[in-house]
Design goal:
OB fold (Dihydrolipoamide Acetyltransferase, E2P); elongated; 4 domains; about 50% helix; alpha+beta
């Protein structure tokens, strides 16, 4: 309507003035309800054409969105294990800090597993003490076997020396018995050394490996025990927390509640614009928003990011080929808007719905001197027409509370 009134002032109004004061035609005489089209046809056609052109230029170069939202992320309160609720440590709307316990599950099974793992670790420590005793015993057996071997070897050497000096003094049978005894003593030494090496291998390799496994089992059991306590992942406020003592929680079924992360305030809005405006939207363009939660207020913004992809075209791998008709729902260009001034969104709760306008800015291009003539005049006109869209946003700002409270039944 605003564009129509503006265009009629330079088309329909001059046409009527020409008919009235130049041709002398008057309303009610030559210009009647039935002759309006014939008498003012040039003004009406010009007004309609100019209105369509103006609307196209304004809405293309100065995009608007009714889906600007102060989006925020919630963190679900989920357990890492299945269990029965034993104690609830917070209530709805409580402020919590990261790491603070929220819910404690029944941990009797996990505590028993931790105790059993700790007992196994103690057994390994005891086995290490016993192994030191076994090592001392094995060293004693080695010493004993080596002594017996030396004694048998000395006896054999003595008999052989006597046999060499005086043949016949020592019988052949006696020498054979001594040689057999030396071989047996040598086997005893080898066996004792092997037993000692086995004890050393147990102390140096087996027991440390068993100790590491036992410690890992203790650590795992302790982690499982810690999982029975659900803790806050971030600083925030507990919302929709309906868990009760005795309920069985399962991380695969549903969250116990949600944490709304604590923030100093809104820092950005996200808005969806039509795909046809993708060539116009760019980082740095000025913008304005008005929010339902903060009526009668225009907040100056600036475009900080433009998402380079459109969500409507995303494809998820399934067991069926994607048909293009499944992607018929057009997506929008996602734009991030940040306040132009510090604290611009103060007083706007997160999740608020806003109306947003983005305005073209060709000042730098015009100042560079790269364009001139008709194109420069066109760009000047485009920037100037931002006033029309800004005026529309202000009208919407004024009407929005009445539309929300009166015409929509207060919702």
């Amino acid at each position: 309507m605003l564009e129509l009134l503006l265009c009629s002032s330079v088309t329909l109004l001059p046409d009527y003035l020409f008919r009235r004061f130049v041709q002398g035609k008057r309303i009610g005489a030559e210009i009647t309800l039935f002759s309006v089209w014939y008498e003012l046809r040039w003004g009406i056609i010009g007004c309609l054409l100019l209105t369509v052109m103006l609307i196209t230029v304004v809405f293309y170069n100065h995009p608007s969105s009714s889906t600007a939202t102060s989006a925020f992320r919630i963190v679900p309160i989920l357990s890492e294990t299945t269990g029965r609720v034993a104690e609830i440590l917070v209530a709805v709307n409580d402020d919590v800090t990261a790491g603070q316990p929220l819910v404690r599950l029944d941990s009797s099974a996990q505590a028993a597993a931790l105790d059993a793992a700790q007992r196994r670790a103690d057994e390994v420590d005891a086995a290490a003490v016993v192994a030191q005793t076994d090592l001392a015993a094995a060293e004693g057996h080695v010493t004993e076997a080596q002594g017996a071997l030396k004694q048998a070897q000395d006896q054999l050497d003595t008999k052989l020396e006597l046999q060499a000096k005086n043949p016949g003094v020592v019988t052949k049978r006696e020498i054979e018995q001594l040689e057999t005894a030396v071989a047996a003593r040598q086997g005893s030494v080898t066996s004792a050394l092997a037993s000692r090496d086995a004890v050393l291998a147990k102390i140096r390799v087996l027991l440390p490996a068993q100790k590491a496994s036992a410690d890992a089992a203790v650590a795992q059991a302790r982690v499982d025990l810690d999982k029975t306590v659900i803790r806050a992942g971030v600083d925030g406020r507990v919302e929709q927390f309906t868990l009760r003592v005795g309920e069985v929680v399962n991380p695969m079924l549903r969250p116990a509640g949600f944490l709304v992360p604590k923030a100093e305030g809104n820092t950005a809005l996200v808005a969806g614009f039509g795909q046809i405006e993708s060539q116009v939207l760019r980082v740095g363009l000025p913008a304005e928003v008005t929010c339902v939660t903060k009526p009668f207020t225009i907040i100056p913004m600036v475009v900080s990011q433009v998402q380079p992809v459109i969500a409507g075209g995303q494809v998820r791998v399934t067991d069926q080929l994607i048909d293009p008709t499944q992607l018929s729902q057009p997506g929008s260009i996602l734009v991030y808007l940040e306040p132009l001034y510090q604290g611009g969104l103060d007083g706007v709760p997160r999740g608020s719905t806003c109306l947003a306008n983005v305005y073209s800015n060709n000042h730098d291009l015009l100042a560079s001197g790269q364009v001139s003539g008709l194109r420069a005049a066109y760009l000047h006109a485009v920037d100037a027409l931002a006033m029309v869209h800004a005026l529309i946003l202000r009208i919407q700002m004024i009407v929005l509370p009445f539309e929300t409270l009166v015409f929509s039944g207060g919702h």
